[in-house]
Amino acid sequence: MAGVNKAALLVVVVFVVMSSSAVAAAGGFVVCGVDGNRMLAACGSYCKAGSRERAPRRDCCDAVRGADFGCLCKLRGALKTMGNIDAARAMQIPSKCRIEGAPSSC
């Protein structure tokens, strides 16, 4: 996946894990340094297929900002299991949030 932004991958992987895991409904969990429940609450409406939101909310940007991008790159195979998440929108979050230091590829 050359050229894929690691920060964008973070967003997509967290949503994949959250959408396919009962753990998200049962309580908090952390994926690569990101609070999964916080990410879902803050970024879910922006990343849903068919969303018309123009930009992610500030709390979404804050939820993504502290991620361990190296860890998330290792989980990129999970992208194949995506459900009702618009991957293109999820991948826009790091650039729209202007996350400093987010590497440009995995």
TrEMBL record:
Keywords: Signal. One of its GO terms (molecular function) is fatty acid binding. Residues 16-106 form the Bifunctional inhibitor/plant lipid transfer protein/seed storage helical domain. It comes from Leersia perrieri. It comes from the Eukaryota. It holds the Pfam family LTP_2. Residues 1-24 form the signal peptide. Gene3D superfamilies: Plant lipid-transfer and hydrophobic proteins. This is Bifunctional inhibitor/plant lipid transfer protein/seed storage helical domain-containing protein. The keyword Signal applies. The keyword Signal applies. One of its GO terms (biological process) is systemic acquired resistance. SUPFAM superfamilies: Bifunctional inhibitor/lipid-transfer protein/seed storage 2S albumin. InterPro entries: Bifun_inhib/LTP/seed_sf, Bifunc_inhib/LTP/seed_store, DIR1-like, NsLTP-like.
